[in-house]
Amino acid sequence: MRLFIGVDFPSMVVDELCSLQNKIRSLVRGGRFPARDNLHLTLHFLGETPESRIDDIRQVLTVVASRQASFQVSVGDRLGYFGSPNPVRVVWVGMKGDVSALSVLQAGVAQAMLELGFPVEERAYKPHITLARDAFFLQGDGILKNGWLDFPVPPFPSMRIEQFALIASEISEGRRRYRPVATFELAGFR
Ligand code: ATP
Ligand code: MG
Fold it and tell me: Which of 1, 60, 170, 171 lies in the 20 to 30 Å Cα band around 178?
């Protein structure tokens, strides 16, 4: 099964992400837009994994979660893109607030997965929520600037991250669907 470890957001925040997504929709031609249910933050991508490994993964992630306290973040205030300017591969929004706690969590997860024998991503972790893929901006020269979009992001409410999840990424009826396999409460002391 195809697995990753990620964080979901409160529905109020997802609503705001959808409305931001709709604004992007109006600026582009083509593009693929992750469904509302799929808007999330990836901490670590495991890829194709035998089901028999789930117990071990669950065990080590429980330890990671027990060591870290919940923390406060919000969706960031700038849109960015990955890939060359037009079309762009990914349009994303980052995080602000206690991003250092987020990085500690991500590093803990990556270390735990390394100990289980999963490869570690070489690239530095860059927390991002993917809002669109393979999008051609109609006014690319005016909007796409050195990896950033010159386009305002409305303020997002602050949220407390209290858990993360092991998630199965599946295709059913031609649609990508994410199914939580296990959730882990951040149980450390604040
Ligand atoms: P699709 O690939 O069908 O467009 P998707 O990207 O949402 O859909 P997955 O490819 O299963 O679904 O990815 C699940 C999550 O893991 C997404 O957040 C994706 O960006 C991230 N991800 C996928 N591949 C990698 C990778 N090689 N390295 C880091 N993160 C990845
Ligand atoms: Mg993918």
Answer: 60
* Closest ligand to the CA of 90: 1
CB 69 within 8 A of CB 190: yes
Return phi, psi of residue 12, to 5°: -65, -40
- Torsions phi, psi of 46, nearest 5? -95, -30
What CATH code is carried by the domain that includes residue 8?
3.90.1140.10
Based on the structure, what is the number of domains in the chain? Answer: 1
CA-closest residue to ligand 1 atom 26: 45
Domain of residue 163, residue span: 2-189
Q: How far apart are CA 128 and CA 49, in angstroms?
A: 23
Contact yes or no for 68/106 (Cβ under 8 A): no
* pLDDT tens digits, 48-84: 999 999 999 999 999 999 999 999 999 999 999 999 9
Give me ligand 1 centre to Cα 176, in Å.
Answer: 10
Q: Is 171 exposed, middle or buried (0-12, 13-18, 19+ CB in 10 A)?
A: exposed
The ligand minimizing its distance to the Cα of 38 is 1
pLDDT digits (tens, 9 = 90+) for 167-186: 999 999 999 999 999 999 99
169 C-alpha to center of ligand 2: Å? 9
